[in-house]
Fold each of these.
Amino acid sequence: MMRDLREVSLVEILLVEDSPGDVRLTIEAMKEAKVSNRLNVVGDGVEALEYLRRQGKYANAARPDVVLLDLNLPRKDGRKVLAEMKEDADLKVIPVVVLTTSHAEEDVLKAYEHHANCYITKPVDFQQFLYVVQSIEDFWLSVVRLPPKP
């Protein structure tokens, strides 16, 4: 049975981002866009996979409804995180929105080859970033039906 996130009070979002400035910008844009969510943030690819697999300090972490993934991360790059997620039977159904500064065609192609659900280049202007976050909310958190959590 699929679930409609509009019927859920809080959407679980995992933001995988190493830039404190981009984390703050995302938080502010979500507040401004009035996205009803619980935003969890990890700062590198190793932590992202530990969170998703509920390992170590993330043993009680909530399973995210959607992952916002930067590509350029320390310890384990976002491309590898995406590939590992989509190869894992328990994680591959979680939608991944690549949200990165990279405009490189190779990054776009590789993200889709590894089954990213969409690829968005981060705008630098706050109003444009707000528009992007609102668009993510409108589509991924209001329109799309996601599979149930296990």
Amino acid sequence: MSSEPAVATREKARIFVTGSCDGLDQLREALERHAEVELVGTSVSASESAGVLTGGHLEVVLHGTRSSTLPADEIATIREHTRAPIILLASGEASVLLEEALDADVSDVLLLPQMTENVVFAVRKAGRSGLRPPPSSAPTRRGRIVTVFSPKGGTGKTVISTNLAAAFAKFEGKRTLLLDLDLQFGDTAIMLGLEPDKTIYDLVVAPGELDSEKLTGYTTRHPSGLDILPAPVRPEDAELVTETKLSRLLEVARQSYDVIVVDTSPFFHGPMLATLDRTDELLLVCGLDVPTLKNVRLALQTLELLAFPQNRIRVVLNRANTKVGMKQSEVEGALEVKVRFEVPSDRAVPIAVNRGNPAVLAEPGADFSKAIREMAKGLQPAEVAKSSQKRGLFRRG
């Protein structure tokens, strides 16, 4: 799946550069020549360009700072004139700044010098994600997003997604939403034995602002207590589930649910990138075969390029007890990461799939079901409370 046509036709991102730090002048010159951005203005301080900030329809403000801590006053000045996402640019040692920025009103932090393409990528991502709400207006409920992904089909990703979501709802007592983002060929509904009247397509094309009450009207309740928002019925409808609408959907879902389990397609496309930026736990499903192993290794490299935090990645070895001449230690050696969860092959799984009833519910004593329940428990450590507040993906040059 290529994204080149979309890149060729997309509009330039309108940005404003303000502030001062080492390397900012060189970056500004490079951005002026870049084909994907439009530099609408620059200034040493935001207050000097209030008119541009207020009326320029900006996508992103790049603000350079020489401070090693969060420049709260400078951010407040920018906020007097625009609600556009802010990316902080800094140089030198900025560990304190990076830590403080996690809970601040900024979308990202970049340390200069930085490749121009990395900055443009950050601009695109911040503009796509939009501005997060100020901490003072944050809702009391803050659901965690668990994304299940595999870069290759046939690994059992959807089986794990549906059973894990059912385990969260039935056995962990969590208010759980299963979101099917395999937008063209999603199977979560059929694996749960459901025939929903409404899908994510119906939700995103419905008129009016999306809120928790509206989301409830488009989900389908499973007997386990799990809510599901299925993929569109027709593949062509997937195009209407835009990144902007998906970002809003995930934010509303976080206000309504304790856990949102996201089943995905095997591609790093726009919806997947929007989901990654909000993911608290990424379950990367791998199998005991060389083609899957190769693709998972490439996926790990791509996640590194996207600056996705490694401490949020959990490798899941599916069908781990299959005798195919490959061991778990060989998988870990090839991927250079530890396997976090093992899920055994179990005859209860295909039977449950064909009956439209998750194995974790139909056969709770099966080895597969026990592994899924242990996974659900293992994804709820106490220390995730702070990490679930992180929204931007911070990266060093």
Amino acid sequence: MRFAVAVITRRRPDGLARLFASLDRLVATDGAAPLALSVIVVENDDRRSPLPASRWPCTHVLEPRAGIPLARNRALDEARRIKPCADWIAFVDDDETVDPSWLGALAHAAARGDADILTGPARPVLPDPVPAWALQTRCYEQPDHPDGTRLQEAYTNNVALRHGVVADPACRFDDRLLKTGGSDTHLFRRLARDGHRIRWCAQAITFEHYPRSRMTRRWALQRAYRVGATNAWIMLDLHAASRLGCIGVALRYLARGVVRAVMSTLRGQVAAATMHTALDAAKAVGLVAGALGIDRFEEYATHHGT
């Protein structure tokens, strides 16, 4: 089975070196047969940086037009050009590392034949000392699922697409979401809506390394607002949701924030109590703003980490 791993990057040499080191540690077998791997690096910049050495063949291209969906689409274009073609095209981020068994777990799940897209856990790695509110709210963690669960979305921090999905010209990240983030959420929700099967692969684990600059309440609240606003935009764009429907979802987040604050207080987690309310309120405000067409927060206009 052949895999191509796509990485988009912009001026993160340390993160890229850390990722390449983890790719070199991959066990390139599914337990029965060897796996072929190639790496595609799309540098979202107008200048080329040296790449770390790697045991895997690597394609290195520039995408000078700034914007995450543009770089992701360039990665898809490069994946389509690989000869012989890869059976699966995976995405990971340049601030991540992969577990040594990541590739084998994806191959094992792919061999079952019941998925067009596979996604798995992206475990947060937080710099010490970790603020109490971050640990108690678990706001840097993503949802987990039983292995094989069919999902309605995925993210490019840990996802693999069957070649047949990538070969479809309609498989494109939406450049209307140039700097807001969420173009991966939009694409995978659209693919799921159109009948492509997204399944959870619990053993295919990546690790997301957060820089110190993101370990602030301000960043976490801005992120929650952006997620809410982008979700409203996606709901309106893909699912024929009404503005009132988005506002209804926002009200449920407000109610959830109150409940979580009460539960945190009862557990003695004072740092989490107010933060739970604030995070859900920020997401609710984002949903309302997105529903009303107010400008979305451009999270990726600011560069974080190296």
